[in-house]
Amino acid sequence: MKRSPVITGIYVLADNTPAPEKSQTQIARESLAGGARIIQLRAKNLGRSEFLKLAKAISQMCRDYGALLVINDYLEIALEVKAGGAHLGKDDLPVAEAKKEAPGLVIGRSTHSLEEAREVEQQGADYIAFGAIFPTLTKGRPTPVQGIEKLRQVCAAVKKPVVAIGGINRANLSEVKKAGAAAAAFISEIVCADSIENRVRELVDIWEKVERD
Fold this sequence. Notes:
Oligomer: single chain
CATH class: Alpha Beta
Number of helices: 9
Distance between the termini: 36 Å
Mean pLDDT: 94
Number of domains: 1
Strand order of the largest sheet: 1-2-3-4-5-6-7-8
């Protein structure tokens, strides 16, 4: 079934790299309970069979909550588990090719400049991830910081939803929302929290307060 690409609010990456003692299923389950409606399964250290097993379990959780599951990298697994979308990096399939292979999926792509964001939109991406907005070492290496002003420029220049990512936390989330981002993506801020569910709930409250104001 083709799903509507509703990309908004708190976007959780179920990636346990910052806290290996927590599983991706735990991260997804507690995030959904806290109010997240977009979960991306990201597990760079797993082989395909292990990833597939996780994807099947988390796909069912997302269906139970009416949430969107996005699979990182593995387009064929996204199709196999009937996920709602797939997220592509620079070394993955081109967006246009992914849309041909999986026309029913929401396709997102990582970008790091205004030029890349415009190009990815022209290629047909359903949403554009842009970052790093703030300093972050989640991926194990420094990532060039784009900042709020560049985020604002990207949001104004493209029509597709922009997902801000990189170093976003409770203190700066409202800035991200006010800059025009459709959604904000999190790893460490959520995964490293004592209570993932409570942290997500807190972030949802901050996001919704900005919308009300």
